[in-house]
From TrEMBL:
Pfam families linked: DJ-1_PfpI (PF01965)
InterPro entries for this protein: Class_I_gatase-like, DJ-1/PfpI
Protein name: Thiamine biosynthesis protein ThiJ
DJ-1/PfpI domain segment(s): 3-109
Length: 132
């Protein structure tokens, strides 16, 4: 069973991760919502999302992939996410990002061939599920 951690942040773009969530559910996978703390955030579409775990626990959660959705807020901030992205890659956990190239660049992972990126949500979902 694939276990995916989805990073939750204010202004996360709903359409970048929606297809993945549907495909994960159909495949019988498990979703873990992680955030920079456990406070409820709001997606760009206004959906309230409450993380179940803090970013600091990602490596202990036994996830197969850390997914970073697109968001309007990656220009600055998110330092804990940047550090976590580096850490999970060093531990061999795949990172997947859709619409989040800027934060990947900030983490030094923009050219990492092991990082899963795609602009097409259906293709992205399929690649993430194969990696998990």
């Amino acid at each position: 069973m694939t276990r995916i951690a989805l990073y939750c942040t204010d202004t996360m773009i709903d359409s970048t991760y929606a297809h993945l969530l549907v495909d994960l559910a159909r495949a019988g996978g498990e979703l873990v919502l992680v955030g920079d703390g456990l406070d409820t955030v709001r997606s760009l579409g206004g959906l309230p999302v409450t993380p179940e775990a803090d970013l600091g626990a990602v490596t202990a959660l036994g996830v197969d992939v850390l997914v970073v959705p697109g968001a309007d807020s990656y220009v600055r901030g998110h330092e804990r996410l940047v550090r976590t992205l580096r850490e999970v890659r060093l531990r061999g956990i795949p990172v997947a990002a859709i619409g989040a190239a800027l934060v990947l660049e900030r983490a030094g992972l923009g050219e990492d061939p092991a990082v899963i990126t795609d602009d097409d949500p259906a293709r992205f979902a399929a690649r993430v599920l194969r990696a998990g």
